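Lecture 7 notes: from sequence to structure.

We start with a single chain of 89 residues. Read the sequence below before looking at the structure.
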Amino acid sequence: MKYLLWALLIYLAWRWYSAAQSRKQGQAGDGHGEAAASATNAERMVECPECGLHLPLSEALPGPGERFFCSEAHQEKHAEKLRDNHRSS
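Now the structure, written as tokens:
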């Protein structure tokens, strides 16, 4: 039981120290510690050519070239437009 209490005390002290260091680093920067950290983890946004919706690349459906779509319906609609343009040319 004695070792369990010591382990708990050491764990709490470590957590307190880590939190204090995190706060200190956030204040030592330009005041945008969290914003800067999240900006480096930002995901590329793409625009659906059919409706103009911007969505994360991981949620987009790839199309021809560098085009990405928000849904299968818009992906198919765009493909139909391309087919129609090739037929009329």
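The chain has a mean pLDDT of 85. Keep this in mind for problem set 3.
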